[in-house]
Design brief:
mainly beta, Immunoglobulin-like, Laminin, 4-stranded antiparallel sheet, 3-stranded antiparallel sheet
Length: 196
């Protein structure tokens, strides 16, 4: 009886075996992550200015920089670069792995500061002198004009008679004089009782 059960288990497992099917190749994810949103002309990037996700063992990374220079990281997933003189700088990378290949691109504006503004390398933005403002210091502060006051002609006044003035002396009162005062004489009051 034990032998029959064993045989049935072997036959069942052999009958329902699933053959191995090769999996479809999955191309790598390709998204460029940038460490900044803008660039200064000729700015030298940090060692992680642009990167893509790790595509695994055996993956290759082919970077192309337009209007700039790749300064470090060629063939790796992280690069550093220097921007060109103006316009925008383009990045392109083709990631190839055993599952296939993907290409992605990114573009960064190159900030040109005007009116003596200074471009800050860590973000590609301008610090403007006191008299200017705007993303590239392109606007000048203008003083607010004083409000305009409408001037009208004042009415004319022509006196027909000239008033005359005659000084008048106002008498000053004399100071009060002190007069001696007497106390009133008491009046006798009649007594009651024994009349005389």
């Amino acid at each position: 009886m034990n032998d029959r059960r064993w045989l049935w288990v072997l036959l069942t497992a052999a009958t329902f075996a699933v053959p191995a099917v090769p999996l479809a190749a999955t191309p790598p994810v390709c998204t460029i992550s940038l460490a900044t949103t803008g660039l200064c002309p000729g700015m030298s990037g940090a060692t992680t200015n642009a990167s893509v996700p790790d595509a695994g063992a055996g993956a290759t990374y082919a970077w192309t920089v337009t209007n700039g220079t790749l300064t470090a990281g060629a063939g790796t997933r992280m690069i550093a670069f220097r921007a060109g003189p103006s316009g925008s700088m383009g990045l392109s990378v083709t990631v190839t792995s055993p599952g296939g290949s993907s290409t992605c691109t990114a573009s960064l504006p190159i900030t040109i500061c005007q009116n003596g503004g200074i471009c800050v390398d860590t973000g590609g933005y301008c610090v403007c002198p006191a008299a200017f403002y705007g993303p590239t210091c392109q606007y000048a502060f203008t003083p607010t004009p004083a409000p305009t006051i409408a001037h009208t002609r004042a009415p004319t006044f022509t006196p027909t008679t000239v008033p005359t003035w005659t000084p008048t002396r106002i008498p000053t009162p004399a100071p009060p004089t002190a007069t001696p005062t007497r106390s009133p004489t008491p009046t006798p009051t009649p007594r009651k009782g024994n009349p005389k």
